[in-house]
Structures are given as C-alpha cells and as structure tokens.
Amino acid sequence: MSNVTLSDGEVLLVASRGAEERHGLWSWSRGDHGWAGKQLATVTQLSSLARHPRLPVIYGTSRVGLEGAIHAWRIEGGRAATIGDKSSEGAEPCHLAVDPDGRLLIITNYTTSTLAIQNLAADGSFDGAIELIKLEGGGPETDRQDDAHPHQALFHDGTLFIVDLGADLLREFTLDPNARGAAALRAGPVTAVPAGSGPRHGVVLPDGRFALSGELGSNLLTGLPRSPVDSWADVPSTLRTGPAKTRHLRNYPGDIQRSLDGRRVYFANRGYDTISTFDVSGSTPRLMNELDSTVDWPQHLVVLNDHLLIAGWDSSKVVAMPLVDGVPDAAETLFACEGAGWLLVFRE
Q1: Where are the transmembrane segments (predicted)?
Q2: Are 135 and 113 in contact (CB under 8 A)?
Q3: What CATH number does the domain located at 49-70+87-192 have?
Q4: Which of 92, 169, 188, 240 reaches 20 to 30 Å from 155, CA-CA?
Q5: Domain limits of the chain?
Q6: pTM value surpassing 0.85
C-alpha cells in the first residue's frame, strides 16, 4: 500500500467530472485497509474547487455549455450542505479563488472572457448578484485566442493575478477593502508573455517570479510580473515528439504546481500523459526528469507532503508519485474515482 498519508481530520476532495449521477463532489480518506470514498454532491461537469480561507466552505465551478454554474458547500461531519448554487453569468467557468479576507469570490468565465465577482456573506454563502468585468485581448492562434480567455485567478501579496490564455497576459488587479462587487477590483498593469504560449495556470516562486504552463505553446515560462516579454525564460515542457497520446494530436499541457521549497515545479503534459519536473532555482528552468504519469490526461496536480498527487481524468483514477529531494519517482495508483479532474486537501 502507498505511504501517502493525510493528517488527522484531513480528507482529499475530488471533483469527479462528468454528466452522470455518479459525478460531482467526492470525499476520500485513508484507513487501515486503504482508501475509501463517498459522494457528497451530484454536479454536472464539476471542473474546479477552492476553499474559504477560514470557514469549512468549498466552492466549485461546473458545466461546459453557454451557461456555467458555481456552487458553495459547507462541509461538516463528513457531509456537504449546499449553501449556494447559481449561474456564473458566463460560459465555461474553469477556475475560482477567494480573496484572503473571505469576502469576494472571483470566477474565470473562460469562453465569454469575463471575471465574475460574487460577494460572500459572513457564513461563506453567496451575497447578492454576480457582477462581471469584461476582458479584452487576443493572440496569434486565432481559434483559441480570438479574445481574452481567463483561465486562472490567484491572490498573491494583496494582488489578484489573472492568467489569460487568450491574450497571452498575466493581468493584475488591486483590491479595495471598502468596496463590493466589481468596484472592489481596480485593473492594474498587464504583463505580456511570449506570443502563442496560451498561459493556463501559474505558481509563484520564492523570488517573486511566476512559473506558467503554456497550453498552446507546450512550454514552461518563468519571469517577473511587469518585466519585458523578452526577459521571460521559455523552455519546452516535454522531450516527447510527434502526435500526443490522449484526446488530441497536440500536447495541450494543463496544471503546474511547485515543490514546498519552491526549487522545483511539476508540469502536467496532458496529451503525452507525462509529468515533467524542472529546477527553477536558476534564471532558466532546467528539466530534471519526465515520467509517465500512468494516467490518461493528467488534469490536476497537488503536492501533499512528500508526494505529488495526480488526477487522471480520462483514466478515472488518482495516482501518487513519491518525491525524493523534490524529484518525482514512479507513480502508484491510490484509488479509482470516476472522471477525477480536480484535487483539494481539506480539513474542517
């Protein structure tokens, strides 16, 4: 049995992504006889999860058609009580984040090029109507970069950063603590990254640089916000060549995560079904290894202590790679979960 462990009171929440009754929010825990899971909520195409900074409340995005949805659950005693369920006021919401004070929920409506801002009440539930901020832009790959397409929202040092796949931008917004809704966000500088990269997800490194996964360019980008585009390091995300294995002929990378000390980043090559590890302690990322993830379409990654956990969407399973000095070793299956697409370690 794998030696992946959770701390007392922790569970691994999984977004089981699909359109059947068995899909939705699942909770997995590990006991003496292995991993056991139970479904907490049925949701159609649950695509991402985020938690409230103080409350036992989880938020999710769902649906892939013209009207997306967002959800809020209070999780106590191993049960999920719905405290919010509504339209995202846009198409294909793919990511969401809560500000550090727990008063605003930011949703990226990918297809309709908007940020949706939802005020939160003291109990974490939705407070009032969603307000939208329309983003503008585009890139050289016209079928995917016809407009701005925000793919990730993350807060860092009091700033909201938006990773915009459609416009090849890292956008900044400052927060007004005295305002609500869209008025709480003030657009700041934008940082261009190499054209056609299609940045999808990012992490912040200890020295303030961002490491971004380029979905369209199949590349890893590292650089400082507000720095010139030609100052960004740009390296291939994979050593594989030729047609990809899963879903598409192209690689279309997905998630990126960092080691606890920030010296390494882990990069999911979804089409080639591999995980690349880079040393990012220097100015140019250095590929350390690239391993078979053992899943088809590795959609999401989580670093849990001395393991890298991988959600294999098309394989419907979660696997773990042990980390030795921050470098992954061969993967081992933890459990099967239908349409595993997002992972979140949660403690009440």
Answers
A1: none
A2: yes
A3: 2.130.10.10
A4: 92
A5: 49-70+87-192
A6: yes
